[in-house]
Structure formats: structure tokens, C-alpha cells
Amino acid sequence: MAKPSSLFLILISLSSLAFLSESRLSYNYYDKSCPRFTQIIQETITNKQITSPTTAAGTLRLFFHDCLLNGCDASILISSTPFNSAERDADINLSLPGDAFDLVTRAKTALELSCPNTVSCADILAVATRDLVTMVGGPYYNVVLGRKDYRVSKSSYVEGNLPRPTMPMSNVINIFASKGFSVQEMVALSGAHTIGFSHCKEFSSYIYNDTHYNPRFAQDLQKACADYPKNPTLSVFNDIMTPNKFDNMYFQNLPKGLGLLESDHGLYNDLRARPYVEMYAKDQNKFFQDFARAMEKLSVYGVKTGRRGEIRRRCDAIN
Questions:
Q1: For the chain, how are helix, strand and coil distributed in percent, rounded to 5?
Q2: Which first-to-last residue range defines the signal peptide (predicted)?
Q3: pLDDT of 108 above 90
């Protein structure tokens, strides 16, 4: 058998090195290719959060729904076509806020003008989420860069793979476990409910006969959602005490029966989760530390790099 030529081996080696280099995630991924990356993201999120204060919570939720399904690959951003029903049109994703999608679109437009075909939508969403969490009082955490955008997005993949607010806690724990997350990490990530709001349809069926609710809180929710059948946009803050501040008040609310969703009550009533709820209710620094670590882990879950993805020219459409 003829031996491969030295030139052929060199070409193969160079090709392999190029692929490895392209696939590597790093903190300074855009330092040379897009020097204004950080500045553009910061300017975009600041302007958006000031004009729409619910953007931080909405973007955090969008990030969860993107990453927890099949990795942080911006597949949640792709619009459906006549030939494909995308993730964002799955039932559980229909309530994802438009402000979060708009934020990513604005950042992508600005970045394309500064450094065309360079920054992925997945990286934009990951960094914008971190910066918004920090902006509303939450912990800073590291985000590596170099994700590519996935070319596949199907609504049929969603059902049963994202936690619903009405799910038994065992099901929620199993979903997180299937992605490699512990009960403690699940509880820490659930602390994201310290900001944002939920529509009445997510909890209205429980507020009349669920003894987990504080009785006075249940009465207030009944009044707030009284016109829900006529106005499905009615909503209530997830944390009624400090709704726009990222803190540990969400965990302090749960033992008092002030959780909004059935899954919130489930955290406190489940013997596997309760110790962490009580720990975070007492120690905000511990919550911030564990939330930051869990977000770092989530932000690299199922990441597509190299030739497994692409840099989309538009975040809502495959190239």
C-alpha cells in the first residue's frame, strides 16, 4: 500500500488545527474580530432596559428556554416557515416576551454594521442575559464565547423537555437531571423568578382551592385575575415584594405561601428541594454564588461550535 505523502499529512494536520481553533470557546473570542462587541451589547441592553424594564426578566426566560432544550444555540430565535414549525411556536413558548426577541435583533443589527458575519446570535443572547441580570442587581458571572447558531429548530422537540409551572416537582427535577443539573442547581436557577411576571392563565386555576397559598394573597390574586377570561394578557409579578430587583426575596416568599406558580410552591413542599430554598432565603450571597455557577454551567450546555453551526446574518432565519 502506498504511503500518504508528507504534503498530504501536513494539509490534514493544518485542517485539523484550524477546526480545533474554530471550535474553541474563550473569553476573548471577539477581541480581534469584533473589538466593540462588549460595548455594543452594553449600549443595546441599557437603552432597551430603560425603555422596557421587563426586558431583563424576559431575556433571562428566553435564554432558559433556548439552552435547556437542546443547548445554547439560538434555535429559539428562528421563526417558523410554511415548511417548518419552529421552537418559538411551541405552546409553552408562545408567551415568551417580544422585548427579549427585539433586544437580540437590535444587538445583532448593530453588530452586523460593526463586524459583519462575525458574532453569533447565541453569544449575543448569552452575554445580554448575563449583563441584564447584573444590571438589575444580580451576580456577575463569566460567559465564554464562540458559540455557533444551530440550523435546526422544531416545535415538536419542545413538549416534555422544558419545565411547565404546573408540573409536579418530580417531573421538573427529572428534566433538569436529564440535562446534568442537580436539585440544588435547579433550585438556584429557579431563583430567576425573583424578577418578571406570569400571566394569570399560568396559575388562575389554583388560587381558589390550593391551600399552599397564603389566604390573603390568594384573595388578592383572585381580584387581580378576575377579568382574565376577557383579558388574557393580565399578569402578576413573580415576586410581589421586590419585583424589579434581583435578590433572594423570592425564596423568602415561598415559606409564607407567597409563591405565584404551582412549581414555586412545589420547590418548598418537596423534601429534596426545601433545604436549598431555606438556605437561599437566609443567605443571599450563597444564592448569588450558586446561581452564578449554575448559569455558567447552563451557558455552555449543548453549545455548537465549529462546523456544527453557523453565524446567522439574521437571528430569526437560517442562512
A1: 55, 5, 40
A2: 1-23
A3: yes
The secondary element (H helix, E strand) that includes residue 273 is: none
| Measured distance CA(96)–CA(230) in Å, rounded | 20
pLDDT of 305 above 80: yes
Q: Which of 65, 199, 212, 265 is catalytic?
A: 65
Q: Is 212 a catalytic residue?
A: no
Residue type, 281: A
Query: Could you give the CA distance from residue 29 to residue 22 in angstroms, rounded to a whole number?
Result: 10
Flag whether pLDDT at 4 surpasses 90.
Answer: no
pLDDT of residue 24: 84
Written as one letter, the residue type at 203 is F
Cα-based distances in Å from 21 to 13, 16, 32, 59, 252:
12, 9, 14, 30, 46
What pTM does this model have?
A: 0.91
Residue 235: beta bridge partners? 199
Higher-confidence residue: 17 or 142? 142
Nearest alpha-carbon partner for 121 in 73, 170, 153? 73
310 φ/ψ sector (left φ>0, alpha ψ -120 to 50, else beta): beta
Closest of 148, 200, 201, 186 to residue 274, by C-alpha: 186
**What is the grid cell recorded at 73?**
444555540
pLDDT in the model for residue 7: 46
CB 202 within 8 A of CB 92: no
